[in-house]
Specification:
This protein has nine helices and ten strands. The chain has helices spanning 4-12, 16-22, 30-37, 66-72, 108-120, 138-144, 158-164, 201-204, 226-244, and strands at residues 24-28, 43-48, 61-63, 81-86, 99-102, 125-129, 152-156, 169-178, 189-192, 209-212. Strands 7-6-5-9-8-10 form a six-stranded parallel beta sheet. α5 (108-120) packs parallel to α6 and α5 (108-120) runs parallel beside α9.
């Protein structure tokens, strides 16, 4: 039987302050928990109402009742499994490929989708400004669909980070050069900005090339959602690499 202290600890991890204090975060759902169990994240505890769904992962698994899982969960309807994992320690960044950087992205769903896009397009490193939403926010984690297991996410002074690199820095702007007319190199840094204000002026000063996604329709839409724009630009980056690859 799960203890009251365990329930209290897990519930507290819904808040960033306690996640940082404990160095722990919560992931819910069978698929997402399985992804984390198969990753390099260290397991702290796993709670489930059905141990059979985690066949082959018996470490630290504790059977709980539906009522107990509801007390720990941040979801309206808990999804069978809740995992508690240790936060990843910052690792070295591989500068041999493209890196994605986000400047003040505030919406958890947007950041989660961006992490999932990094996973899809093989971007191993996501560098976030210090005031970007927490990647361990439960809503962010839900949106990653388990991709947090394969993308290294780090937080830093983005202005300082970009100021030290020799890689070309591409920034997404409404008034930038059309990405379809831009030659994308083999490696670089793509910077995406805040949902409402775009890339900050401090970071903008470090961008070596401004790029944009042309609008073909005649709608009054002011801009694309940051995650949607990220998907289009990452696709162009990878398409350029594909075009350079020798035919088999």
């Amino acid at each position: 039987m799960v203890s009251k202290n365990q329930i209290k600890l897990v519930k507290s991890l819904q808040q960033k302050k306690y996640r940082n204090q404990q160095g722990l975060f919560v992931v819910e759902g069978i698929k997402a928990v399985r992804e984390l169990l198969d990753s390099e994240f260290k397991t702290y505890a796993i709670f489930t109402t059905d141990v059979s769904v985690l066949d082959g992962h018996d470490e630290a698994v504790e059977s709980v009742t539906n009522a107990e899982l509801r007390k720990m969960s941040g979801l309206t309807t808990p999804n069978t499994v809740l995992g508690v994992f240790e936060m990843a320690k910052a690792g070295n960044i591989d500068f041999s490929d493209w890196i994605l950087a986000v400047d003040e992205v505030r919406d958890p769903g947007n950041l989660g989708t961006i992490i999932r896009l990094c996973d899809w397009f093989g971007i191993k490193h996501l560098v976030c400004s210090e005031n970007t939403v927490d990647c361990y926010n439960p809503k962010t984690l839900q949106a990653t669909m388990g991709s947090i297991a394969r993308v290294q996410v780090g937080y830093t002074d983005l202005e300082e980070f970009l100021g030290k690199t020799d890689l070309p820095i591409f920034g997404a702007f409404m008034e930038g050069r059309a990405v379809y007319n831009t030659k994308m190199p083999k490696k670089g840094i793509l910077v995406m900005g805040n949902e409402a204000n775009g890339i900050s002026s401090e970071v903008q000063a470090l961008v070596s090339e401004k790029i944009s996604i042309p609008q073909f329709g005649k709608s009054t839409t002011e801009s694309l959602n940051v995650a949607t724009a990220t998907a289009i630009l990452l696709n162009e980056i990878r398409s350029a690499r594909h075009r350079r690859a020798p035919a088999k």
